[in-house]
Every structure is written in structure tokens, then in C-alpha cells.
Amino acid sequence: MATTAIRSAALAIVLGSGLLGGRCLAQPASISEGYRLAAALCARCHVIVASGSGSWTDAPAFESVANRPDMTPGWLVAFIQKPHLHMITDIYTPAQASSIASYILSLRRN
After folding, report:
1. Rounded mean pLDDT of the chain?
2. Model pTM?
3. Which residue intervals define the domain Cytochrome c in the entry (predicted)?
């Protein structure tokens, strides 16, 4: 009985974290929260909507980030939480970074 619960929990972690190498398996609420956060915190440097117009910086558009062949949910979440070039010193919680990553990966073309 306990073994089944442990296996179920492990499977949920693997699927939820995107460790299977596929697209982020985020829920729509997480994607919409990620968009809200991106609009408030990232849009000053990044183009955050698919096929949006250019930004004033050379920061990559979220659609471009999503479509990089080597992009993984785990890498993206970790990167979002680290300050990067020209980024204003916002500190993102793991949940915020996960939501932003879910939104970015929702822009991936099939």
C-alpha cells in the first residue's frame, strides 16, 4: 500500500517537473499566472507575447526562448530565479519562476 503511494507521488513529481523532457505539463491557471507575472515583471525588457514587436533591449523574445531545441522546464525555472544581464533585481520565488516558465513554454510551436 505504501509502495503504491510512493510510486504515485514520484510519478507526479516527474510529470509535474517536466523531467521526461517534453513540454511543461503546466495547468492553465499556472500559465495564466505566468503571463500575469511576465507582463508585470518581464515585459520591460522581453517581448512576452508570440509575434510581438521588438523591445528596447536585446533580451530574447519569450517565443524565441520557448522554441530553442535544448530548452527544458527545469533549466528555465533555474535561470529565471538567477539575476541575468540587465535584469532588474527582482527576486522570484520557485512558484513564480515555475509559472513564468510555464507561460514561456506555452508559446512553443508544435
Report:
1. 77
2. 0.70
3. 29-108
